[in-house]
Amino acid sequence: MNYRTFVTSQSLLMTASSMVFPFYLLLIRNIGDSYSQFGLAYGLFAITGALVHPVIGRLSDKVGDRALLLFYTWGMAGMMLVVPIIKTVAALYMLQIAMGILGAVQKTTEKTALIKQTKDSQTGLKIGNYHLWTSVWGAVAVMATGYLVDFLTIGSLFYIASFLYLVSALILMNSASLKMHSHKEKPVQP
Amino acid sequence: MKLKWIVTGISIYSLALYSSFSVFSHQQETIVVEDEGKLLPTKMKVIKSSHSTHDLQKWVKEEDAISIAGMQHSQGGHTLYPAGTLLDMKSYNKIVEFNPKERRITVQSGATWEDIQQAVNPYGLSIKVMQSQNIFTVGGSLSVNVHGRDIRYGSLIDTVESFRLLKSNGEIINVSRTENSDYFPYVIGGYGLFGIILDVTLQLAEDELYQHRVATMKYEDYEDYFKKNVKKDNRVKMHLARLSVAPKTFLKEMYVTDYVLADDQRNLKKFSALKEEERVALPKLMLGVSRYSDWGKDVFWDTQKKYFLNSSGKYETRNNVMRSDRAFMKYENPNRTEVLQEYFVPVDQFTAYIEDLRTVLEKEELNVLNITIRYVEHDEDAVLSYAKDDMFALVLLINQGRSKKEIQRTEDVIRKLIDVTLAHKGSYYLPYYSYPTKAQLKKAYPRINEFFNRKRELDPEGRFKNLFYERYGK
């Protein structure tokens, strides 16, 4: 995984998450029938994230951030397929727990990957660039979605987001195995 | 290796996508519909809507559970039925015929009062009886047999000459006081249970110029005031009163607005442009504050009273009086809603009734935001007639939560209020949430069994269904 693929895949998933975020909030709000349920659902997300952070940190050192990022993108692609069909508060709570875990994975891997990508030199510049592109995509996505909702149902927005996560996952997989490919080829070369 | 994993990933994803999407599209097959009360979200099969009488006829033959809907401002599920077909009549709204000379108009039932006002105002004509607001469809209004500020023309039923009815077997008949007359008193005030009202011929009144006459008084003086200064004074054509819900003057202070025929009718033209809703922000803010505090209720009452007293002497045409503001009342809290109750009580009973009402309301917890009073003349033409005498109609606007517990709490209080009303030989209005018991319904509407029996005779397959019928008719 090189810096470029990393930024591309991160931008893609940032696009996906910014796109659905406002509607996801709306969904949580609509399924719960009081603000206390809304609070609980949101709190579950945060608290799960908090609790799994140490575990994920350790895991990241063991399996590497590429594996975790793959876990995150595939996981989110799957979650976005579940979101449009949930109907009950119980399902929403479970979804929030799962999202909490995935969110924590993203937070940790984003940072570890960034550190590794920028270890050699120009750390600040690279991080700046990273944030520029991911944020720009996020911003564009939010604005575009504002217009899109007039034409699409909210359900289909989640499906589009799921597809974006899928693409992001595929880019990561592709780049990862490319590396493996070159490793394999090396010994053959004289 | 790479390809294998990617292919596996995509396959699993496709499977998941397929399952998710099939569940999703299945869920979309039912539509959750609510009426204005927001207490009865109901999963319905489909919403159908058409300009064509032929389509309506076809659907009546095809569908086995139909609920007919106009603006859906009824609050007891009168337009809803689980897994039923909702016939949205709003696009069936043409003006079929307008004869200014004979002061008569025929409109399709989805037309609103606003549509009629736009058509007849240029001819100096006006609607005889309708609600205080003009957003409602004619068909919906007929189905609840509305009344309004007018005090001279009775209930809506008195202004209807005839209508066409699409029956449960797909047949279309003319209904008037002479033709198929047995349908007349059932369909009007029939809550959509006897068929689809297609088009309606209504009598019109002359548009007139009125002068507002506003006065404040104590509740115990109202009866006399009304009899002497309103009922007996033929120049007063419309009337509306408001009873205080502010803690300082709770159910004691009132102010009344009489619409008095102006001396010089030649000025009518000057005022006849139809007004649009203008005051929204301030009344909305005040009503908002009064929802949450007693202090707010006092401020709202005082300001409102001052505002109306200041408008005394103002000129307004009949058509404009019948275009009352409502946007400021729109309430969008996801957890709470605002429901209406309307109680009818004979004019002679008013003072004693208010005292008993106050006793209940002071003890119980009910967030009443507004009480308006109108007058309806004795009229028992409709089978489900609420005007068993010359009566005052009190409309209560109540803010309540949407949870089961809150509904239960409101129900307890409202049943007590209805008991008080019935004890004063009163009745209550049916388009609201099904809080009343079956016994209370029977007492307020002695002909209710006759009504439901006739429904079963005329619609033997039970094609026209709604939650009101489900709750009380079975």
Automatic annotation (TrEMBL), chain A:
GO cellular component, one term: plasma membrane
GO molecular function, one term: transmembrane transporter activity
TM ranges: 12-32, 38-56, 68-86, 130-149, 155-176
Xref: Gene3D superfamilies: MFS general substrate transporter like domains
Keyword list, A-Z: Cell membrane, Membrane, Transmembrane, Transmembrane helix, Transport
SUPFAM superfamilies recorded: MFS general substrate transporter
Position of the signal peptide: none
Location of the protein in the cell: Cell membrane
Domain Major facilitator superfamily (MFS) profile: 1-190
Topological type in the membrane: Multi-pass membrane protein
Descriptive protein name: MFS transporter
Organism field: Fictibacillus phosphorivorans
Automatic annotation (TrEMBL), chain B:
GO CC aspect terms: membrane
Keywords: FAD, Flavoprotein, Oxidoreductase
Domain FAD-binding PCMH-type as annotated: residue spans: 39-207
Record's keyword annotation contains Oxidoreductase: yes
Any one GO molecular function term: D-arabinono-1,4-lactone oxidase activity
InterPro entries per UniProt: ALO_C, FAD-bd_PCMH, FAD-bd_PCMH-like_sf, FAD-bd_PCMH_sub2, FAD-linked_Oxase-like_C, FAD_lactone_oxidase-like, Oxid_FAD_bind_N, Vanillyl_alc_oxidase_C-sub2
Record PROSITE patterns: FAD_PCMH (PS51387)
Coiled coil region boundaries: none
Protein name per UniProt: FAD-binding protein
